Amino acid sequence: MTRIILVRHCEAQGNTEGFFQGCIDSDISGNGKTQLELLSVRCRNMPFDAIYSSPLKRARITAEAINRYHHLPIQIEPRLHEIDGGEYEGRLWDELTRIYPEELQNWYFRPFDFAPKGGETMRMVYTRMWDAVTDIVKANQEKTICIVSHGCAIRNFLCHALHKSVEEINDVGWGDNTAISIIDFSADLQSNVVMMNDASHLTPELSVYAQQKWRMAENQVNPAVGEDR
After folding, report:
1. pTM, 2 dp
2. How far is 160 from 168, CA to CA, in rounded Å?
3. pLDDT of residue 213
4. Which of 151, 155, 157, 148 is nearest to 227 (CA)?
């Protein structure tokens, strides 16, 4: 058995400023730094044999925090990056609602058909993430591997790991920033999701997901909760 500990990056500028981050290499927030303190303590005694990260800064900084007590080389895997939003990149969600109403409907209600101009389709992310993680598994048989990636990318991978088609991705919830999922793989690459999107190390005040839900209820803002904003 090979175990994958899959972690979403900490809160970053796109999460706090309300724009589509995608592959923009944005910095982490002050709240993100606090999240990382708690994440590093939670991961302190996890028996990692290797740590892999998306090349984007917010993921690399998260991997470095996890590595604080492990002192392993952080291996960059380019295919672990977030969805490429093409013309969506860097635009505020309110702006996207006005400019691309049809595509926004796909993002929420038919994400498997999401295909931003100049970017990457959701179906491409679904395949890319599975290939990236299973290649890591094949290279690290019978080990425990930490992988740091992004909200939409992780959601696609978990969908596949749960043996669901990309058309069933709305059955898979979003993970909070620094949420942890655990997936075991057999030698023939059969996946078993042991834990999914657990962020119990965060207090409600530090949870991006909890704060966005509060804003939705109080201010009736854009319902884009939990995604890589």
Report:
1. 0.92
2. 9
3. 53
4. 151
